[in-house]
């Protein structure tokens, strides 16, 4: 029978640990970790995601600062806002909600985030750290996927992992992290030929496409481990759950699989950023004449 890889409980554990660390930091240094969220435009789904992240932050003892910019914001205006937050010592983590309106150069905006505050793992600096297998902030969804696979003792080393999707926030970094864990990784995307045949060779499938029920049961090798990172209208993933569950050895449900892990990683990394920055502040104070 297929095993469900549930993210909810593991995420709650990670958030509780992050909350403990936030409390200790505040008791010892007076610093409360602070996450700034930046939302451009009025897309209702993005607004809901941002609100959810702020609520969870507050529950974990992390202060949140909310910046909402109009839909017609230019790249220059957004970059200026992100630089201001990057230079603000009271802000430890910055999250720019993706996607931004089409007139904005999203890469330029991401690169305006100080890597020390890039708790969502969106800068080239964070990507390079993931690609080289070096420590650093992870893109939250891929980071959450890896933690989930580890928690469920999924053997990654030597496994063939097929990642469906190559977006800079999900597919690409997910493949990089799997590679750093010694999987043999195949990336697939909208131009890939014979996708079902390739997926059938996978020990681990990561679906990050954005199309409901896209991956079918007959695409899977019996016993494959299936990670469904998709989240589509009506709480539907990118994998046809019932068909896949009949073939897979383990599968993440939607909702309750990858989603909660994403927020848990964001909070964990925000607290880690605050810890690192307050340490730097203490050290720089210590060097004052
Ligand atoms: P995205 O930026 O739209 O990327 C989608 C990827 O899927 C692209 O690389 C695209 O290929 C590929 N693709 C599209 N059609 C395909 C096809 N027919 N065959 C194979 N590949 C195809 O989406 P995203 O931001 O990565 O998000 C993907 C999914 O994850 C969405 O359902 C989203 O809601 C969900 N998500 C969940 C979380 C969470 O916390 N759980 C977080 C972020 C995203 P090309 O590159 O060739 O266009």
Automatic annotation (TrEMBL):
Superkingdom in the source lineage: Bacteria
Record bears the keyword Glycoprotein: no
Assigned GO CC terms: cytosol
Keywords, in A-Z order: Amino-acid biosynthesis, Histidine biosynthesis, Hydrolase, Methionine biosynthesis, Multifunctional enzyme, NADP, One-carbon metabolism, Oxidoreductase, Purine biosynthesis
The UniProt record lists the keyword Hydrolase: yes
Catalysed reaction equations from the record: (6R)-5,10-methenyltetrahydrofolate + H2O = (6R)-10-formyltetrahydrofolate + H(+); (6R)-5,10-methylene-5,6,7,8-tetrahydrofolate + NADP(+) = (6R)-5,10-methenyltetrahydrofolate + NADPH
Record-level GO BP terms: L-histidine biosynthetic process; methionine biosynthetic process; purine nucleotide biosynthetic process; tetrahydrofolate interconversion
Listed PROSITE patterns: THF_DHG_CYH_2
Binding site for NADP(+): 165-167
Pfam families: THF_DHG_CYH, THF_DHG_CYH_C
UniProt domain Tetrahydrofolate dehydrogenase/cyclohydrolase catalytic: residue ranges: 7-120
InterPro entries noted in UniProt: Aminoacid_DH-like_N_sf, NAD(P)-bd_dom_sf, THF_DH/CycHdrlase, THF_DH/CycHdrlase_cat_dom, THF_DH/CycHdrlase_CS, THF_DH/CycHdrlase_NAD-bd_dom
Family that this chain belongs to: Belongs to the tetrahydrofolate dehydrogenase/cyclohydrolase family.
Protein's recorded name: Bifunctional protein FolD
Species, as recorded: Kribbella turkmenica
Gene encoding the protein: folD
């Amino acid at each position: 029978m297929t095993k469900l890889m549930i993210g909810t409980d593991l995420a709650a554990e990670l958030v509780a640990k992050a909350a403990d660390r936030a409390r200790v930091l505040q008791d010892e240094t007076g610093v409360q970790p602070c996450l700034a969220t930046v939302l451009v435009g009025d897309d209702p789904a993005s607004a809901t995601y941002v609100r959810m992240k702020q609520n969870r932050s507050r529950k974990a003892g992390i202060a949140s600062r909310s910046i909402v910019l109009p839909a017609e914001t230019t790249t220059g205006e957004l970059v200026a806002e992100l630089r201001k937050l990057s230079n603000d010592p009271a802000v430890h983590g910055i999250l720019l909600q993706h996607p931004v309106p089409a007139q904005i150069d999203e890469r330029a905006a991401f690169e305006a985030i100080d890597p020390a505050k890039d708790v969502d793992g969106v800068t080239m600096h964070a990507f390079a750290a993931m690609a080289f297998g070096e420590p650093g902030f992870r893109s939250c969804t891929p980071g959450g996927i890896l933690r989930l696979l580890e928690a469920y003792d999924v053997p990654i080393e030597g496994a063939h992992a097929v990642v469906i999707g190559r977006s800079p926030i999900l597919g690409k970094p997910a493949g990089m992290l799997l590679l750093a864990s010694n999987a043999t990784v195949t990336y697939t995307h909208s131009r890939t030929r014979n996708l079902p045949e390739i997926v059938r060779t996978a020990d681990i499938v990561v679906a990050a496409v954005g199309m409901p029920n896209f991956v079918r049961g007959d695409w899977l090798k019996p016993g494959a481990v299936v990670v469904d990172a998709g989240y589509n209208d009506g709480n539907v993933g990118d994998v046809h759950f019932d068909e896949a569950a009949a073939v897979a050895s383990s599968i993440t449900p939607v909702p309750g699989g990858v989603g909660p892990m994403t927020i848990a990683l964001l909070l964990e990394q925000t607290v880690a950023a605050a810890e690192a920055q307050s340490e730097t502040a203490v050290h720089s104070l210590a060097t004052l004449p």
